[in-house]
Write a structure and sequence with these properties.
Blueprint lengths: L9 H41 L6 H4 L13 H12 L6 H11 L7 H20 L3 E5 L5 E5 L4
Antiparallel strand pairs: 1-2
Length: 151
């Protein structure tokens, strides 16, 4: 093995940091493109239905792999963390946006936001029954959530 030409790993560290930035930007471009494609597919589906297409679009498509969005307990931890860090009670959709941002996913993807909001609502109901969060309904009948205060 050849001895190192420098005493530190400065060149290696800077090269790895530059590569990390490149990969981050590439992932960002891919996420943006994926969100665009999903929105385009939704638009095509709406047009097909408007034009009278009566078939089932899901069965006409090739089988898709359904990837797990969250690991076991990951969403619950993310929801509770978002509520702990929040200065005021939050709506489930706002919590979903926060969770999506923390997981570095694209919050502009409407389908993803709807799916995560649905899952967040379920987590909140379960955590409410366990006494960890409390449901707050304001004067406009808007439901918000906050961490339950322990006495």
């Amino acid at each position: 093995m050849n001895p190192a030409r420098t005493e530190t790993y400065e060149h290696t560290i800077s090269g790895l940091l530059a590569k990390r930035v490149d990969l981050y930007h590439e992932a960002e471009r891919i996420r943006d493109r994926l969100a665009e494609i999903r929105n385009d597919l939704s638009a095509l589906d709406r047009v097909l239905h408007t034009l009278g297409y009566a078939g089932n679009l899901d069965t006409d498509m090739p089988r898709q792999k359904h990837e797990r969005i969250f690991g076991q307990g990951e969403l619950t931890r993310a929801v509770l963390d978002a509520l702990r860090d929040a200065p005021e009670p939050m709506a489930s959709r706002d919590i979903a946006r926060e969770v999506i941002a923390v997981n570095e996913q694209d919050a502009r993807d409407r389908r993803l936001l709807t799916e995560v909001t649905r899952r967040v609502s379920k987590v909140l109901r379960i955590q409410s029954q366990a006494g960890r969060v409390r449901k707050i309904i304001d004067a406009t009948s808007r439901t918000t959530w906050a961490i339950a205060l322990r006495v």
